[in-house]
Design a protein that fits this description.
Helicase, Ruva Protein, domain 3, 5-stranded mixed beta sheet, 9 helices, about 45% helix, elongated
Length: about 210
């Protein structure tokens, strides 16, 4: 039987418990992080604490693309240099960062907040799909790029969105299959992802492959 850890301080134990709640952080890693903070200057730890509090209290989602933002309209949506006629649909905020790192896309984004996954209880109504259809109609978009993971759930979501947008007068494309099936955008190297964006194909063509 594994005996519970003994901490010399209740404050230390509480801090370890909170760090251990983070994804990918076990109790040993949590203890190592907390002990590191204890050795730092109080000003440094206060700055970290204030940054986390401000993050949770003040960060918001862009009212247009649903990306994380400091303002109601994010920097990408408000940038005059971006192409407002093309929207890249991604699963989450990490994917926006991945596509931006390729420096190959100059349009706007639309963050779904997930992908359709009946096994996980995620239905189309749980995602920002209706708002994408609304953007397509209101903003007179020329092209919607489906840049979702090359997985069964990603393909299901792609097809669902394609059906919703069919007949709306917008070109629907998808990433070229430089990305292997089962891959997620955040784990794809920048060169491969960049080429997949540049060599994107119309979604209808991808259905026959």
């Amino acid at each position: 039987m594994i005996t519970p850890e003994k901490y010399p301080s209740k404050l230390l134990e509480n801090a370890v418990n909170e760090f251990a709640r983070l994804p990918g952080i076990g109790r040993k890693s949590a203890l190592r992080l907390v002990l590191h903070l204890v050795r730092q200057d109080k000003e440094d730890v206060t700055r970290l604490g204030n940054a986390l509090i401000s993050l949770r209290q003040d960060i918001m989602h862009c009212r247009r693309c649903h990306n994380l933002s400091d303002t109601p309209l994010c920097e990408l949506c408000s940038a005059p240099s971006r192409d407002n006629s093309v929207v890249c649909v991604v699963e989450n905020i990490r994917d926006v960062m991945s596509v931006e790192n390729t420096h190959q896309f100059k349009g706007l984004y639309h963050v779904l907040g997930g992908i359709i996954s009946p096994m996980d209880g995620i239905a189309p109504s749980d995602l920002e799909i209706d708002s994408l259809v609304e953007r397509t109609e209101k903003e007179n978009l020329a092209e919607v790029i489906l840049a979702l993971p090359a997985t069964m759930e990603g393909d299901t979501t792609n097809f669902y969105i394609y059906r919703k947008l069919k007949g709306k007068g917008v070109k629907v494309t998808t990433l070229a299959r430089g990305i292997s099936f089962g891959d997620e955008l955040e784990y794809t190297d920048e060169i491969t992802l960049g080429r997949s964006i540049l060599n994107r194909v119309e979604f209808e063509q991808s259905l026959g492959k």
